[in-house]
Each structure stands twice: as C-alpha cells, then as structure tokens.
Design a protein that fits this description.
It comes from Aquitalea magnusonii. By secondary structure, this protein is of the alpha+beta class. The protein has 16 helices and 22 strands. Strands 7-6-11-10-9-8 form a six-stranded antiparallel beta sheet. The N and C termini lie far apart (about 80 Å).
Length: about 625
C-alpha cells in the first residue's frame, strides 16, 4: 500500500506540475502581449513627437530665412519705390536666390505690397496679383495681430506649404509681406525617415484634413479632405495630443495611433503602429513556448515512468531485504535473482562477499569461482565504490539516495543507492542496492542545456549576438531602480549608423550585416562586462553604463568611434561612422525619459553633420 500511495502521489504531482507550467506559459504570453502593446504605444508617441519636432524645426528655419530676407535694405527700398533699377534688381535676385539655397526645399520667395500685388518673385512666371489667396485675406483681416501665417497650396504647378511674414517699415507699420513656398516633399522626406515597422502608417494633414505626406507614400495626392479616423478606444488624451486604437482610413489596417498637433503651425502628424508588427514577437514566443511545454511534458512523462519503475524496483528491494533477514539461504537466492544490482559487503573488512549479475556488470567485477564443497562461492574482493565506502565506514544506513558513483577504474555513473546495515549477523554486513539512472541524468542535463539555450535566444539579437530591445528595456528599468535606491550614477548612449541605408542599397544587405557586426564587435571590445550593449532597431544601438559618470561614458563611446573608424571593409573605402546621444541618470528619471533625451541628442547630432556623439554636457 505504501508503494501504491507513492505511485499515485507521483502521478498527481506530475499532473500538477504540467498544469502549473502551462498556466505560467499562458500568463507569460499574456504579459508579453501586453508589453508589446505598451512598447508600441511608447514607440508611436515617441515617433509622433520626433516627427512633429522635425517638421516644426524645418518650418521655423524657413520662417527665419524669410525674416532675414525681409530685413534687407533692398526690400525696404522696393516697398517704398515699388520699382528697382537693373543693378538693384540683380542684387535682390542674388540675395533671394542665396536664401533659397539655404533651405533645400524652399522653392519660391515673393515680396508683396499692402495691396497684395507682387513686387518681386523668384519665379518670373508668378502671377502679379495674389488678391484671392488665403494669406491676402489674412493680411487685410481687421484685428489680426499675428506677424506670420502658414497654409498650403493645392495647385499642381505652385502647390506647396506657404509661409508668410509681415514686413514693417521704420515706424513699425505694416507695409507688405514676404511669402515663401516650401515644397511638400520636405514633409515626405521627413516622414520617410521614421521607422514604423513593415505595416506602420504615417500621415501629415493640414487644417482642412487634406493629406500632405504619408508613409507608405500615396501614388496620387488627394485633393479632398480625409474622413476623421474612427477610434475604437481612446488610450490617452491631452490638449494637442491623442493616442487611440483604430482602423486606418486608407487601408483599414488595425493600428495604435498617436496624433499630435504641430506647435505654431496648422498641421497634424499621425503615426500608426500596426498590430501585425507589434504582435509578431508574441506569436514567435507563443510557438517557442508551446514547443518548450510539449518537450517538458514529454520529459516529465518519461521521468514519471522512470520514477514509477523505481518505486516498483524499491518494492522488490524491500521484499528482498525482508527475505534476507528471515533466512540466509532465501537471501542468497534473492540476491542472485533480484532484477536490481545487489552487493553484500562485510562492514569490518570492507570486502565484497556476494554480488548478483546486474551488480557485477555495473561494477565490472568478475564472477566468483565455484567451490568444490558445493557451498556458496564467496567473492572476497575489496570494495572500491565511492562514496558508498565512506558511508559504510561511517555506519550510515541510506535509503533511495541519488548519487554519482566512482568505480575502481575512475569511471563514474549515476545511481539510486540504498544501504541496509545488518550488524547482528554472524559476519556484520551491509546489503547495497544500486539502480542505474545514468540515462535519466543524461536526459536531465540535455533538458537543462536546451533551457539555457532557449533563455539565451530570448534575450539575444540573432545577428549581432548583442542583447535585444526587450532585454535592454528590462535591464534599464532595473538599473534605474538601483540608482533610485542607492543614488549611484548611470549613463546611457543611443546611436545609429550614419548613412546605413546607402550600404544596403549600394553593396547589398550582406554588406549591411557586416557593418552591424563590426559595430557590435567594437562595442564588445571597448565596453566592460558589466555594461549592457543592445541592438534596439535596424541600425540603432543602446549602451547602458551602470555606475558610470557621463564623462566616463563619453570616453568609452569615443574609443568605440576610433575602433570603428580604423575598421577596413572590403567592399568600400569609406569609413563607417555613427551619431548618437549620451545622457546620465537624474533623480525621478523613467526609462522613456532617459531614452527620449538621448534620442533628442541623436537628432541634434544628425542635424549637426553626423559622426558625433553629443551628451547633456556638450549639446549646447
């Protein structure tokens, strides 16, 4: 009954173990799905903010160019006289075309008087009167105190983004305006730079809900207002910011959207992350988890079967030991016929008296020669079996203990060992029972190695062998908690490879992979084992420097730049460079806060000419 109860208990424990691991897998997958959606929300918010900043910066830069053009004495003279001589006309042409070259997408500058007649245009074919334009109506509207105005044109020939600055005379009176037309390809060029995944979507809309730029790019420009996105769930709302879940008005794809109004300009940017993109990792992990659970279930059933076999063997062993205690002759018969390895050892001399066939095979000992008097043969061989010899010398009784045994030839095996002491016999002895579990141990070791490989695959980028984005986010969160608890310094660096798309386009994706591997090797060579290097995007990398001040992190990234600059690639003579930002921990920081600061520094480094690593200490 005792062995039957143990068998039932083992079966119930196996069922409970499999059900609990299945529940763990289900909860882990649910957490992965929720984390993927949270990351997609953060990504959409960050990309919409980055696009809004880039577009606003370009429009402000254009406004500054127009304002600097309007401050010229030639412009004031033109407004006063309405006509310039040939030399003055040539000088103002040189001035305006110089301003046009300052902004690649600025294609036209006009100077209008207070009656909205064109006094000068960088495009000779421009109409002489602009009375019907929206900015002329704005200019003449009573009570308008704004000094600038922005709108869009939809004409095929003159379409674009219109930026207007009022012109003042020396008495601060409005005497005209300067009008700049910015090509809408400026919006499209900035939109194309954002990584929104394979099925993501980006839109830039004006105040009339007319599409100005999009990704994927539309083959034709719509001249009709788009219907408002019908959100199915509002996730977050502020004054000029909205995050929601909706189906796209262009392709009906379900996405997480982040919508943001441009500060000071009548445009709105909308960034959508497709569910197919941010749930891809969840589906991959689900497949791996199911396979891992099935493998675990199979191994559990094998182990259960082995354990039930052990229980049956122990039951036989107990019966055999009882028979031995009842009769020496019965013990000898049981010793020879038992299906498990049995050894009878004299505890005083530590010599083997008898051993059955399984024991002789297991310990590689010879059979005893038969005696002429017909009495049972005695082996009389020394026992060389550690640690069983130590237990016998200490007088320990052992029951079903798993241990690794070392034989006389120094070879090893795993076995379940039981030692029954029989001190009251004519010759004090001990009965040793051995059950070989080497094969089961090998399976357990194989499972442990495969689990280790699965864990490593879950946190490693398959190409560069650096950490992946998910593991880096978890490490950054833990390091921030440590900084808050102990006030230790910490720095992070975010950078991406300059002109990486050119490597793929010019030399193929294998060349791009070689560049990524070179960057990963440079990071591994220049950082400490405690630093965490991760690939968080296509060509974007993140380095976490625990217990590191900002200036020390700057030195490390400078060494990485030097190592990468000295790396020679067989497919090009150009050097590979990267640009990024470095920031350090501040009390109250969140992971997204630190990464946003580093991303802004990265953008500044790109705008400053690339091949730069800007930090909070040198970005000014």
């Amino acid at each position: 009954m005792q062995f039957q109860d143990k068998g039932k208990l083992a079966k119930w424990l196996a069922v409970i173990f499999l059900l609990s691991t299945l529940l763990i897998v289900v909860f882990d997958l649910a957490g992965t799905r929720q984390q993927g959606e949270s990351e997609a929300r953060h990504q959409a918010a960050g990309l919409s903010e980055l696009l809004e900043e880039r577009l606003s910066s370009g429009l402000r830069e254009t406004s500054l160019i127009l304002k600097s053009a309007s401050d010229s004495n030639l412009v004031q003279l033109l407004l006063n006289k309405h006509l310039l001589n040939a030399e003055q006309q040539q000088r103002i042409d040189v001035l305006m075309h110089g301003k046009l070259r300052q902004m690649p997408y600025l294609k036209q500058i006009d100077i209008l008087d207070s009656a909205c007649y064109v006094l000068y245009s960088s495009q000779p074919q421009s109409p002489t009167s602009q009375l019907k334009t929206d900015y002329c109506r704005w200019y003449h509207r009573n009570g308008s105190q704004d000094s600038s105005f922005t709108s869009t044109r939809q004409e095929q020939a003159q379409g674009g983004i219109v930026l207007v600055q009022k012109l003042l005379n020396q008495d601060e009176e409005t005497v005209g305006m300067v009008v700049g037309v910015l090509d809408k390809r400026f919006f499209q060029a900035e939109v194309a730079k954002l990584p929104v995944g394979r099925f993501g979507e980006i839109m830039v809309l004006d105040q009339r809900q007319i599409l100005q730029a999009s990704w994927p790019a539309q083959t034709s420009e719509p001249d009709q207002p788009l219907n408002e996105l019908q959100s199915t769930e509002i996730l977050e709302r502020y004054d000029n910011y909205l995050q929601f879940r909706a189906n796209s008005i262009l392709d009906q794809e379900p996405r997480l959207y982040s919508s943001r109004m441009m500060d000071g300009f009548p445009f709105r940017v909308v960034v959508g992350i497709a569910e197919r993109d941010f749930t891809r990792a969840y589906h991959d992990k689900a497949s791996m988890a199911v396979l891992a659970w099935l493998f675990t279930a199979a191994l559990t059933l094998i182990t259960l079967r082995s354990h039930l076999g052990n229980i049956r063997q122990n039951r036989l062993l107990s019966a055999s030991a009882a028979r031995i205690r009842e009769s020496e002759e019965l013990a000898r018969l049981t010793l020879d016929t038992a299906p498990v390895a049995l050894i009878l050892v004299a505890t005083e001399t530590m010599r083997i008296l008898r051993a059955n066939a399984p024991a002789r095979d297991m310990l590689r000992i010879p059979s005893a020669p038969p005696r002429s008097d017909g009495q049972p043969a005695i082996l009389d061989l020394p026992l060389h079996l550690e640690p069983v010899s130590d237990w016998l010398q200490a007088g320990e009784a052992i029951s079903n203990r798993e241990t690794e045994l070392k034989r006389e030839d120094q070879s090893t095996l795993w076995a379940i060992v039981s030692v029954e002491l029989m001190p009251h016999q004519q010759i004090p002895a001990a009965l040793i029972a051995l059950y070989d579990i080497s094969q089961r141990k090998a399976l357990e070791n194989e499972l442990e190695e495969k689990n280790r490989l699965l864990n490593e695959m879950a946190i490693t980028d398959p190409l560069t062998r650096l950490c992946n984005r998910r593991h880096a986010d978890q490490v950054l969160k833990e390091e921030l908690q440590r900084c808050e608890r102990y006030s230790q310094p910490m720095s992070v660096a975010v950078f991406d490879i300059d002109h990486f798309k050119q490597f793929n386009d010019s030399f193929g994706h294998q060349a791009g992979d070689n560049v990524l591997l070179a960057v990963a090797n440079a990071l591994s060579d220049c950082t400490r084992s405690t630093d965490v290097c991760a690939r968080i995007g296509g060509e974007e990398f993140l380095v976490i420097f625990p217990c590191t001040r900002l200036r020390d992190a700057e030195k490390v990234m400078a060494r990485v730049q030097q190592v990468l600059a000295a790396t020679v690639f067989p497919f090009t003579e150009d050097k590979v460079t990267f640009s990024g930002g470095i920031t350090d921990w501040r009390p109250g920081d969140s992971p997204s806060g630190m990464l946003n600061r580093a991303d802004k520094l990265l953008y500044q480094a790109k705008m400053a000419g690339r091949d730069l690593m800007l930090s909070d200490g040198n970005s000014e």
